[in-house]
Write a structure and sequence with these properties.
By secondary structure, this protein is of the alpha/beta class. It is built from eight helices and seven strands, in the order βαβαβαβαβααβααβ. Strands 3-2-1-4-5-6-7 form a seven-stranded parallel β-sheet, with helices on both faces. Helix 2 links the parallel strand 2 and strand 3. Helix 3 packs parallel to helix 4. It binds nicotinamide-adenine-dinucleotide. The site of nicotinamide-adenine-dinucleotide has 28 residues, from helix 1. Keywords: Oxidoreductase. This is SDR family oxidoreductase. GO terms for molecular function: oxidoreductase activity, acting on the CH-OH group of donors, NAD or NADP as acceptor; quinone binding.
Length: 246
Amino acid sequence: MFDLKGKVALLTGANGGIPRATAALFRKLGAHLLLTDLDPAALETFAQSLPAAEARILTARVDVTNREEVDEAVALAGREFGGIDILVTGAGLYVEQPVTEMSDEDWRLTLGVNLDGVFYACRAAMPVIRHGGSIVNIASMAGHRGSVRHAHYAACKAAVLGFTRSLVHELSPRGIRANCVSPGIIATPMTEGVMASNGAALIANTPMRRFGSPDEVASVIAFLASDAAAFVTGETIHINGGLYMD
Ligand SMILES: NC(=O)c1ccc[n+]([C@@H]2O[C@H](COP(=O)([O-])OP(=O)(O)OC[C@H]3O[C@@H](n4cnc5c(N)ncnc54)[C@H](O)[C@@H]3O)[C@@H](O)[C@H]2O)c1
């Protein structure tokens, strides 16, 4: 499909449903991986479950709300791989609560993971991403149309869209691209609650009449990360079965 042979990919939130599918596909396509998330043991178990291949896999505990840990992961990629070609910001937190019940801490926590985390990862990685490289930020349908009882999450995802488009101006002169994917409802641990409470209605409103799978997001991320998308930058690809059409 797409060739990522020899490319170095750094993923945040790599234990998540979508990032795991992305890591597995990237590995199949020949990329070296630096997988980061909160739980190092779970990351290691996942890394070992991936099929043997020539390319290397490293794992590191990184809390994306912690600037030093993010910076250190990028430095690790530099030391071990000599640089980065692909950054995928997958870490995410989706807490259900109405605005009137959001404490300052709730607001800050959601912004810390979903927005600060993207900023920290991009800022640290940008100087070491090589010519021809690609950033894929995982936004969300929520960033385009809002999300019931997830206003802080939706605000972050909308901000990620604007942030990513702004990166284009700084990265294009160096031959680096930046894009977003905006998934709709994808069956992962993150959406278990919403699928259980509101799944039938969501499916009824989705022209394709089903939820998406993590693999169906991973393949679009791989496209954007690859040379097949060499002139695509500042773009957002919706992956939602027609639930929201821009
Ligand atoms: N599943 C969906 O329907 C959907 C839709 C739109 C966007 N997304 C986005 O896709 C991305 C992946 O989500 P997913 O569905 O695979 O969810 P998931 O819950 O399976 O994965 C999220 C991952 O982020 C990690 N994480 C949380 N806080 C972190 C922190 N402080 N530092 C580092 N890692 C942290 C978690 O440990 C987890 O492994 C997220 O950005 C999410 O917002 C998902």
